[in-house]
Amino acid sequence: MKTQIFDERIGRADYGVGVVEEAPLRKSHSQPFVEEAQASGANGAEPKPAEKPKKKLRDEAREKIESILNLRAFLAIAGATALLGLYIYNVISINRLAGETESLRRKIDEVRSLNIERESELNALTRSETIGREAHEKLGLRVSTVPPIELKAE
Known about the structure:
Layout: H1 12-15, H2 33-40, H3 51-68, H4 71-125, H5 128-139
């Protein structure tokens, strides 16, 4: 099976394969380069032979950059950037919420321990012995040994 690397419609020179740029030859080696440039491009209508390949390379580079920076690629990159930003924001939010949850758990544990402490104090104060002792010490009251009198309605 024959593999085709290059498109038949586009020449190999357009791909940049096998293209060798040759420097323009001077007419005589004794003339300075400035004089040659002034002589060949003095009227400004015809560009120097060395500028033609540079312009072609510049145009090719511009086309490649434009093809890279087309609208679809820009939207794909922008979408990927937005998704990455959303992901990073979510990770930061999750970490912040995990910290808040942990601090709330610590507060709940502190409140539970205080609640247990208060309940034990309440249980100690509501026992009948404690109430009788407090009534005798503060108010001078004693537990009556006389049985209560029952009144009957006739």
